[in-house]
Amino acid sequence: MTRPKGLVLDFGGVLTTPLLPAVLAFEQGEGLPEGALITGLYLDQEMVRRTHELERGALTQAEWNADAGRALGIAPDNLIGRVFAGLRPEQSVIAAAAAARRAGIRVGILSNSVGLAPWNLYEGYDLDRLYDAVVISEQHGMRKPDAEIFELMLKMLDLPAADCVFVDDTEQYLAPAAELGMATVHAREPRETIARLEALLGVPLADGA
């Protein structure tokens, strides 16, 4: 079997610590009941639509903050930044990606944006220098799970789908990648993710080896 030549990583929840603990900490800090964010934003169809607009760049972060603040009954100021304030770099996966690149594997980042201003989720991660291709959804007017955004990433990596592995912590985004022919990994725990990538890529990745 031919070893993959490309690795495509989601950002939030893959290169960062998990999203759920950050969301729970936000709810607690705001005095909201547990689950309020998911109920108010991700089970409400209008807010789902607005979030998809944000990810495609059709809505500004400030506009989303105002809508979400009203939906939750809290202050809108820097709301996205407050929600994700607890995220930290997942150093083991970042090191594994660097090890993959050193082994000659092309590594891309494919992320659904939460807006880039005034708060930038990607600040400090040096994505343009550390990875071979970076696709942030709002900059291209499309979002996962649109097949076109995966095709764009493959074009930027200059690799066919069959030569690539895609990693995401959101399971529903794996199917369109698989349909294109990419191998997929559902990121649930960093050590498990890295072990599965080592098996697929055929190179040591743990601890940046």
From TrEMBL:
Transmembrane segments: none annotated. The keyword Flavoprotein does not apply. Pfam families: Hydrolase. The keyword Transferase does not apply. GO terms for molecular function: hydrolase activity. InterPro entries: ACAD10-like, HAD-like_sf, HAD-SF_hydro_IA, HAD_sf, PGP-like_dom2. Keywords: Hydrolase. It comes from the Bacteria. PANTHER family: HAD FAMILY PHOSPHATASE, HYDROLASE, PUTATIVE (AFU_ORTHOLOGUE AFUA_1G12880)-RELATED. This is HAD-IA family hydrolase. It comes from Actinacidiphila polyblastidii.
